[in-house]
Amino acid sequence: MGKCLKSLSNLLSLSLIIGRANQIDDVGYQRLGDALKSFQKITSFTFSVQNDNLLNSESLKFICEGVETMTNLTSLSINIEANIIYTEGAQHIGNCLKKLKNLNNLTIQILHGNCISSSGAEALAEGIQTLVNLENLQICLQTNYIGVVGAQNLGQAIKNLKKLKYFFLKLNGENQIEEDGAIGLSQGLKKLEELRNLSLNIGLNNQIKTEGFLKICKSFESMEKLQSLNLFIAKKNIIGQEGAIQLGKSLKQLYTSLSSLQLTLKDVEIGFEGMEGLMDGLKSLKQLTYFIFY
């Protein structure tokens, strides 16, 4: 495949999707990485590795060395399913991102089994914060144990993205960001004043608690141009009635802009007063044309 790709040097867009259980070894990934260095004109690249392909940190290094030469890239998507990249693999991605100053569209999806940890999340954040032209950012980290520090670093990174219009963040499974991690994220979110579309999914076992949720809700109030909000909070993130009341208050501040709202609050114990406070905020959204509540 590497030799074939090298002959296609005029490509402007490439999607490289490696299906399940192909078990490409390090030599194979090295050849792919070398081939990617041929694409100096390319503006859009997708790299997707499905389950059981033996992609490790060294293999990913070869791919990233190829991608970082694509200095004309405006759109990049990296999808790594259940493989074994660990912290070092995430560091290679972060270093690669620092070379791609023209990106305005970035998707990073690293699923369970890769275990990038807080250090890996920090490396990704360091790369992301240099991408000041980003308008669309999607991050999905499933069961990667990024912890409090990882979430705080992501919050710090997005502070710099003043042009961001669409932000999707999914932290499901075991990431354990806890209250302080949620607060760190909120500090970044409140700086995204140009945001039009926000999707925030905080899944099981993140334990953000009431104070973390309060801060996240308050961050919405600075998003005066927000048109679409999708908020998913799963069980074991007990937000309490105080959290639900604050969500209602924050929604009130979006009454002139918000047209689409999807709320999923699963087993988070908001109580009767919390529901009343939430409903009080919802009824003020006169521009709303699309609403789903689970």
UniProtKB/TrEMBL annotation:
Superkingdom of origin organism: Eukaryota
GO biological process entries: nucleocytoplasmic transport
Gene3D superfamilies (alphabetical): Ribonuclease Inhibitor
GO molecular function, one term: GTPase activator activity
Sorted UniProt keywords: GTPase activation, Kinase, Leucine-rich repeat, Repeat, Signal, Transferase
Keyword flag Transport: no
Span of the signal peptide: 1-23
Record-level GO cellular component terms: cytosol; nucleus; perinuclear region of cytoplasm
InterPro entries: LRR_dom_sf, RanGap
Name of the protein in its database record: Kinase domain protein
Classification of source organism: Eukaryota, Sar, Alveolata, Ciliophora, Intramacronucleata
